[in-house]
Amino acid sequence: MAGEPQDDCLFCKIVAGNVPATVVRETDTTLAFRDINPQAPTHVLVIPKAHHPNAAALAAADPALTADVLTAAQAVADVEKLDSYRLVFNTGAGAGQTVFHAHAHVLGGRGLQWPPG
Ligand code: 5GP
Ligand code: ZN
């Protein structure tokens, strides 16, 4: 069922506390933690605690939770004192998605090129 924890999902394991993570912020519905392989001085992943395979599936299943993720991303930017930042939702393996539990990358703390690679 949409939103149910998946046994084989790394980010569900982080939500459950079965895999450690450096948590920077938590709400009832979201968790924000530092990426293990940071691509910028600030690189935080913001996830819904409920399992959805990507951002589009999350938006279709639970618009309010999607908004929670965006609000949590701004809160991370605030505590990290980022004036500018980039939010990335890699969607699909061809775009670099490797963990199929919806997550926003919050990237900042350095100049970010546009267009992205
Ligand atoms: P994706 O490539 O799916 O958009 O993003 C997945 C992100 O998860 C990658 O940036 C990767 O570095 C990060 N990641 C993979 N395994 C772990 C882990 O065990 N802990 C943390 N904190 N991040 C991870
Ligand atoms: Zn999951």
What does this structure look like?
With 117 residues, the chain is of the alpha+beta class. The chain has a single domain, classed as 2-Layer Sandwich (HIT family, subunit A), CATH 3.30.428. Helix content is 26%, strand content 21%. It has helices at residues 10-16, 55-61, 63-79, and strands at 23-26, 30-34, 42-48, 85-88, 104-108. Strands 1-2-3-5-4 form a 5-stranded antiparallel beta sheet, covered by helices on one side. Helix 2 crosses helix 3. The protein starts with 9 loop residues before the first helix and ends in a 9-residue tail after the last strand. The model has no long low-confidence stretch (mean pLDDT 97). Guanosine-5'-monophosphate (5GP) binds next to strand 2.
Question: How are the SSEs ordered, and which strands pair?
Answer:
Blueprint: H1 10-16, E1 23-26, E2 30-34, E3 42-48, H2 55-61, H3 63-79, E4 85-88, E5 104-108
Bound molecules: guanosine-5'-monophosphate and zinc ion (ZN).
